[in-house]
Amino acid sequence: MNRRLRIIVTKLLDHLKTKCTKTKAKMATQIIDDGVEIRIVTNGVPKIVTKANIKTVEVLINTTIKMDIGKEPLRNIYIDQLTVDNPVNSGPADLRDKIAAMLQPLAQAGTTATAANQLLQTAELQNIKTSVSDVSAKLSQMNDNMVLEPKLIDETEGRVIYKGYAVPGTDENANVWAIQRITNNDGNFSYHWASGTKNFDKRWSLRREYQYS
Q1: N or C: which end of the chain has fewer CB within 10 A?
Q2: DSSP letter string over 138-159?
Q3: How is the chain split into domains, by residue range?
């Protein structure tokens, strides 16, 4: 009887081990350097991203890696480090660094950074800074009560974004906020408001506590 029980237990453990292995393989993600592009393969489905479109790579909360492609936040690429088996990595920070290394331009023979290139880059950065300052000045002239733009944005959850609308300088604990939640479900975007209204009677500090509809 004991021998039969051992055989049954052994077969059950083998079955569970095989099932776990298949599940892990199914969830595996590969990030592959394809020259001017990066290929991200998840569950056998590839996604091609041009390197030039990737602005930054950073670690969010837990094990989530964000690849910022410079568009709407919900269109960025989010990868769970725990599912990535290529490249082999030791953790979120290591995976971030390896993706960043893929984005480095290939060295070309006889090319080096020159003072002229540095001056050109400095001039471009100054132009950007000037443009941002001009936009900021124009926005500051607008009536803040019109609430054209959110005053605070929380993107730390990856596929969920919270936008808070209030007069600049408002305390996060004051009941004078209107809060919008935007959710990305595989490319389907949902827009909801805290407590189902756009009323300025919420607390930004409690944005995750409200019901949204």
Answers
A1: N
A2: HHHTS-GGG--S-SEEE-TTSS
A3: 27-102, 145-206
Model-level pTM greater than 0.70?
no
CA distances from 151 to 41, 48, 108, 139, 142 (A): 37, 34, 44, 12, 13
What's the rounded Cα separation, in Å, for the pair 206 and 140?
Answer: 27
* 189 contacts 74 by C-beta, under 8 angstroms: yes
| Cα 152 from Cα 163, distance rounded (Å) | 6
Q: pLDDT tens digits for the chain (213 residues)?
A: 456 666 666 766 666 556 555 444 456 899 999 888 999 998 889 999 989 889 999 998 889 999 998 887 788 999 999 999 999 999 999 999 999 999 987 544 344 456 656 766 777 788 788 878 777 766 655 544 445 688 899 998 889 999 999 887 889 999 999 999 999 988 889 999 999 998 999 999 999 999 999
